[in-house]
Recover the amino acids of this structure.
């Protein structure tokens, strides 16, 4: 293969590889160029030692995944990691929900499933803290 043909071949192969890598990468922002919103909620139970209350709240939080604007939901409890001054392990259950944009989060707030969740499970918690973050 001549040097000219080899350069053309390598250039074409590199372009194809770059194109394939770009095509397979999932964008972090939706197609409409909106900014994804992350809704992270921490719950403190009224009865923090109650496994039954914790399991009931987890069951309720998982129902929120049925709301059409929820793109992904993670439900968690405190991890058994090292104790450090910067780690707050005082909560009992958390939910992290991803929306395409603030409009999706707005739909969620007034959605009948969310309203039913609050109505049916709020007796279990003493405190709730919400952190909403926009993707940059």
């Amino acid at each position: 293969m001549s040097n000219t043909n080899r350069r053309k071949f390598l250039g074409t192969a590199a372009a194809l590889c770059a194109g394939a890598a770009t095509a397979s990468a999932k964008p972090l922002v939706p197609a409409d160029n909106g900014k994804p919103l992350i809704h992270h909620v921490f719950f403190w139970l009224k009865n923090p030692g109650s496994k039954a209350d914790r399991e009931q709240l987890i069951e309720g939080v998982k129902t929120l995944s049925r709301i059409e604007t929820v793109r992904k939901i993670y439900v968690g409890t405190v991890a058994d990691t090292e104790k450090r001054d910067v780690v707050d392990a005082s909560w009992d259950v958390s939910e992290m929900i991803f929306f395409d944009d603030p409009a999706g989060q707005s739909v969620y707030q007034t959605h009948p499933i969310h309203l039913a969740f609050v109505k049916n499970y709020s007796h279990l918690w003493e405190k709730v803290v919400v952190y909403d973050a926009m993707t940059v």
Summary: Confidence is low (pLDDT under 50) at residues 12-31.
